[in-house]
Amino acid sequence: MLKIIIPTIMLMPLTWLSKKNMIWINTTTYSLLISLISLSLLNQPNNNSLNFSLMFFSDPLSAPLLVLTTWLLPLMLMASQHHLSKEPLIRKKLYITMLAMLQTFLIMTFTATELISFYILFEATLVPTLIIITRWGNQTERLNAGLYFLFYTLVGSLPLLVALISIQNLTGSLNFLLIQYWNQALPDSWSNIFLWLACMMAFMVKMPLYGLHLWLPKAHVEAPIAGSMVLAAILLKLGGYGMLRITMMLNPQTNFMAYPFLMLSLWGMIMTSSICLRQTDLKSLIAYSSVSHMALVIVAVLIQTPWSYMGATALMIAHGLTSSMLFCLANSNYERTHSRTMILARGLQTLLPLMAAWWLLASLTNLALPPSINLIGELFVVMSSFSWSNITIILMGANITITALYSLYMLITTQRGKYTHHINSIKPSFTRENALMALHMTPLLLLSLNPKIILGFTY
Amino acid sequence: MNMFSSLMLASLSVLTLPIMSSILNTHKNSTYPHHVKNIISYAFITSLVPTMMFIHSGQETIISNWHWMTIQTLKLSLSFKLDYFSMIFVPVALFVTWSIMEFSLWYMHSDPYITRFFKYLLTFLITMMILVTANNLFQLFIGWEGVGIMSFLLIGWWYGRTDANTAALQAILYNRIGDIGFIMAMAWFLFNTNTWDLQQIFMLDPNLTNLPLLGLLLAATGKSAQFGLHPWLPSAMEGPTPVSALLHSSTMVVAGVFLLIRFHPLMENNKTIQSLTLCLGAITTLFTAICALTQNDIKKIIAFSTSSQLGLMIVTIGINQPYLAFLHICTHAFFKAMLFMCSGSIIHSLNDEQDIRKMGGLFNAMPFTTTSLIIGSLALTGMPFLTGFYSKDLIIETANTSYTNAWALLMTLIATSLTAVYSTRIIFFALLGQPRFLPLTTINENNPFLINSIKRLLIGSIFAGFFISNNIYPTTIPEMTMPIYMKLTALTVTILGFTLALELSLITHNLKLEHPTNMFKFSNLLGYYPTIMHRLPPLANLSMSQKSASLLLDSIWLENILPKSISQFQMKTSILISTQKGQIKLYFLSFLITLTLSMLLFNLHE
Questions:
Q1: Hey, which end of chain B has fewer CB within 10 Å, N or C?
Q2: What are the helix (H) ranges across B62-161?
């Protein structure tokens, strides 16, 4: 694993030592190389995990997320070029350093063997993200957003620390690999219910669960493009990853503790997608759509069947790429119209036909058109929730319908219709932007050819 | 015999060639549409060979290749089912598409994005082929959603128009409601039979199939525009006419019926679902026929007649005759596509005028289109020995002689009669009488693309029914004997419809109706359905999402409960507890006092 971590750390000196005109090229190429190296992790030859050391390991669950993380760094760098173009060099370097630092933490989080080191790194990812949001956001509301982001996540995750210490006392180990074999059921007591809550809430907030999701739209809307991308694509998935890992040791409490959260997620999924129908702000719409998709993941994880785990993992990867792509598209609109309001960007298909094609593809994957991996994820979740309770199909079906509606509403509002006069003289789309979209889309399409590599450990 | 499957695959895969070449950019843009048209004709000719082999030997085949993935116990692979339904439908669809492609060469010739239009049509055709030949539910779902999305794109082809975008979104909305049913059926089959392969599902023959079949019925309702989810089909006429001809008459909209036909092995034992299907179909066929009566947009009338025919197909499935329904799908494709093309020809010639009240007298100006339109309408009404007769008459006869719901039967019969009425109306207003269009329109139908494409379908509309029903092996036992009045029912009601409509139309020339009656309003406003259903539920839903979901819950309650209340609480307590009040003088004074006091104390100590 060090062969990925050390190069990622070395990204920082690379940034600082690069010449002025080379910083973007150097860092992008280098991070792309790192992501190519990490692809080899997708090959998981045996049922056990790949143990590299006592500190780091990877298994079919963490490998796709890890590859997604490394894949996203070059994309974030490509996406940020424009809005940093007016910044002084040193700030650009600082920005790239932050991204590289975040990447390092994320890689280590996904590969940590020990729960406690997972926890520490999970918290550590907050720091660079917070800096990115509050330093490079566009409006003054970014400070408020940063505050929300920090406090929601911290308040949610501090009980986890206590819980982890108590588990350490109970079992003598916090090793993921050992926990799998520790099949002792937790006794049925009040304190264990709180243990369950403490363990899950940290990740529920991160996902986010409906009701605890307020930080997410704010952070998404205020963050610069790279921040939005990494938030939507990876930081939310940390929650899902953590839940998938930690539910293993929380039986049998999950069986009955899951009910309120399942209900809340099912309800919240409808609510948040309904909110999307009324959004005028493009980034906020995409953010709420993330909440709605992540609610599906929460449902899937809490149902705890092999199918639902597969669905959750597939949906996380699919949504990571899709929402990141949507944010990139939103950003390319923002850089031209200087507004996030959708109605101001209508009729763009006439002016930027290729961009409209990317919009179309992104919207279609967002509404889970078969045979994309988004559909595989959603379908598996729907299947498992149907087998859990037949009635959920009503809510799931409603959500599927609303998702299609707001995705296409977004597409129609931004791309279709007559174009407005104030966007007469916009710049054509750059090759950089098209390459960026293509790099999001290609993995999505290729993965739908062979989805089994992202189906996680229950495949 | 081994060439059977390979020829079929060849005919399907040849369709993907233009898509590939457009990715590789090996074609010239100006000839691309012709290229697509030719490819489809090749695919049609190729597909004829396996179809003839199939008709000759009746051998059904399942091709399974390319293992996609195995999830636990569920194996998913690329699998084609070459059975009666797909083998007959593929050439029919390819033939119709071929003609429509040629027609679009004429109709869309001035469109700057004609290449893209052809790509869309071709992609649609491919997804339709996937749908028809799919052997497992997942593959079927790919085709099912694919045709839905392509219909969205094609309806919204003129994306500058608000109406087109609304219609496209509406189509997706209704289709998605249907998809809920499809997904539920998939989930149920997975849960209960652990497979998505059709033949395995049928072999296992699960009990208590009400739930999945209801799901499939919902799916068919959405896709085939049955009552309740029907308004998208007439709205879809916002798309270009070739799109209406291909998607919304002959191929995509029959996908729902096709799905039910595919699942008839499960359905034939389930009486509950059958009666539901029957009633749904009967309501649809009557309701949409009534709506068609008073429309003035020529495309809308034909769209409603499509909807009505789809209702008839669903009725046929409801009386447990899937093969007959399938026959009607095939014959219907010919004349309905042709009717749309004729209307396209008229619309194009009259400078995009779609209102039949502003037509008239086209009998002289457009003889060829007129001929085709009349033959198409006659075929639609089931005139003996035209194509429609072979399926429609049989359906009515079978319905007459079956132990079926008399109300459903009556409704179907009335709808059959109304078919003649609205067909007459089109003929009367558009073709006969005096011209009512602007005098300076240049009417020219002498374009080989137009003539050839319509001619091909015209021949199809006359002979296809005979050919198909003569060649396929007998699938259902025909009614050997029946009273003469039953045999003649279909014909009688149709003739009745014709005469009535002719009389009524003549009356409109001489006698003007003073006030529109309530019946007229009901029919003209589409049964008030869009007025109610497109206003109240969306309004309720959208205001719910704005007011309760977004404002009340997100912006007020959730903000107040957690972040705001906490910060408020902290602020209050810190103000209350803190001794810091900003009174600098007092602080300094107390500082001074303590200092002096301590000094004094220290001094006193010594």
A1: C
A2: 84-107, 114-133, 137-155
A391 touches chain B (CB under 8 A): no
The interface residues of chain B toward chain A in range 127-156, judged by CB-CB distance below 8 A, are 138, 141-142, 145-146, 149, 152-153, 156
Q: What is the mean pLDDT of residues B94-121?
A: 92
- Per residue in A146-201, pLDDT tens? 999 999 999 999 999 999 999 888 888 888 888 777 767 778 888 889 999 999 99
Give B21-26 contacts, CB < 8 A, sequence gap 24+.
Answer: B22/B115, B22/B119
Tens digit of each residue's pLDDT (9 = 90 or more) over B492-533: 999 999 998 888 888 877 766 678 888 888 888 888 888 888
Tell me the two tokens of residue A359.
Answer: 């919009």
Distances (CA, A) of A275 to A108, A247, B417: 35, 30, 48
Percent of chain B with pLDDT over 90: 52
d(CA B86, CA B94): 12
Is B71 an 8 Å CB contact of chain A?
A: yes
In chain A, domain spans: 1-41+56-454
Q: What gap in Å lies between CA B593 and CA B582, rounded to an integer?
A: 18
Distance from CA of A170 to the nearest CA of B (A): 32
DSSP three-state, residue A406: helix
* CB-CB neighbors (< 8 A) of B141 in chain A: 370
CB-CB contact of B417 with B493 (8 Å): yes
Question: By the 8 A CB rule, do B384 and B281 touch?
Answer: no
Hey, what are A100's tokens? Answer: 């590289």
Nearest-Cα distance to chain A for B188, in Å, is: 8
B558 to chain A, any CB pair closer than 8 A? The answer is yes
Q: Confidence class of residue B606 from pLDDT cuts 50, 70 and 90? A: low
What is the full DSSP assignment across B453-464? HHHHHHHHHHHH
Q: Residue A300 CB: number of other CB atoms within 10 A?
A: 33
Q: Is residue A69 a contact partner of residue A107, using CB atoms and an 8 Å limit?
A: yes
Rounded CA Rg of chain B = 32
The model's pLDDT over B201-210, given as tens digits with 9 standing for 90+, comes to: 999 988 888 9
What ipTM was assigned to the predicted interfaces of this complex? Answer: 0.93
Average pLDDT over residues B462-479: 81
Give A87-110 as a DSSP string.
Answer: S-HHHHHHHHHHHHHHHHHHHHHH
Is the distance from CB of B36 to CB of B87 less than 8 angstroms? no
Which residue's entry shows tokens 């986010």? A208
Token pair for residue A54?
């006592």
